[in-house]
Design brief:
Elements: E1 2-6, E2 10-15, E3 18-23, H1 34-48, E4 55-60, H2 71-77, H3 83-99, E5 103-108, E6 111-113, H4 115-121, E7 125-129, E8 133-135, H5 149-157, H6 159-168, E9 172-173, H7 174-180, E10 185-187, H8 190-202, H9 206-238, H10 242-253
Parallel strand pairs: 3-4, 4-5, 5-7, 6-8, 7-10
Antiparallel strand pairs: 1-2, 2-3, 8-9
Length: about 260
């Protein structure tokens, strides 16, 4: 079975038991605006309910997986009353990825930063090109991780290392991320490595693997959902700070921010 579905920001291609979801804003390094988040949530929900698909691959079109939230549209142009809607949409994307009864793979090339990294961390496997960069860099604009970033980083790194990675916000090479335990594979040929991973999984007892995922998801989902709610509350508070406004202004002016801790 081969199915194709396209919107302006998200593309879906289903080939047999594998669904590939591609973020499609290459001109902005697949930064996540409201339209893309809504499209991604809808596509993932549809795939989650399909009995024909066992594996979902998430990737970005062009030079990057995703550079994170679209700062101009999400933080400057969006109305304040739209903020809860955006955060709820982010939560839906992440919770769907984490709980869907499929094996999920993020194929990372270029940048996976901010919300883009949080979404990648919600998948079961992260396969990254050797030249890619990963960063939980919300701190650079005076914000905190969202998309379950706190939950997933703590699960992989422990609380202490997670805190310091969030506070530093520095980009990691794929190799550094692998050594930390953030990602599962580093490769020089992403397409070939992804195909090899898919063939191995397709020849594995997938239903047993999915059942294990389901057990962990049912056990841990309440905690993830609580973290997503805390991130929503915390992000709202951070958006009111002078440091956040300075971070945004510095980003737009392409200069280093001058934070004052307020």
């Amino acid at each position: 079975m081969t199915i194709e579905f396209k919107t302006d920001t998200v593309q879906l291609h289903v080939n047999g038991r594998v669904a590939t979801v591609e973020l499609n804003r290459p001109e902005s390094l697949n930064s996540l605006n409201v339209e893309m988040l809504k499209g991604l949530a809808a596509v993932l929900k549809e795939i989650s309910q399909s009995s024909d698909v066992d594996i979902v691959v998430l990737k970005g079109k062009g030079r990057a997986f995703s550079s994170g939230g679209d700062i101009k549209t999400m933080l400057l142009e969006a109305k304040e009353e739209d903020f809860p809607i955006v955060m709820d949409c982010i939560s839906e994307v992440v919770a769907t990825l984490y709980t869907m009864p499929k094996l999920t793979i993020s194929a990372v090339t270029g940048a996976a930063a901010g919300l883009g990294l949080s979404i990648a961390l919600a998948t079961d496997y992260i396969v990254a090109d050797k030249s890619s960069k990963l960063a939980m860099n919300f701190i650079s604009i005076g914000l905190i991780p969202d998309g379950g970033g706190h939950y997933f980083l703590e699960k992989r790194l422990g609380e202490d290392r997670a805190k310091h990675l969030i506070w530093e916000g520095k980009p990691l090479s794929a190799e550094e991320a692998y050594q930390l335990g953030l990602i599962h594979d580093v490769t020089e040929g992403l397409d070939e490595a992804l195909e090899a991973k898919l063939q191995k999984l397709l020849n594995s007892p997938l239903q047993a693997m999915i059942e294990t995922k389901t057990i962990f998801a049912e056990k841990n989902s309440p905690q993830l959902l609580r973290v997503l709610e805390l991130e929503k509350e915390g992000q709202h508070k951070m958006r009111q700070t002078k440091d956040h406004q300075e971070g945004i202004q510095a980003f737009l002016e392409k200069r280093r921010p001058v934070f004052i801790g307020k």
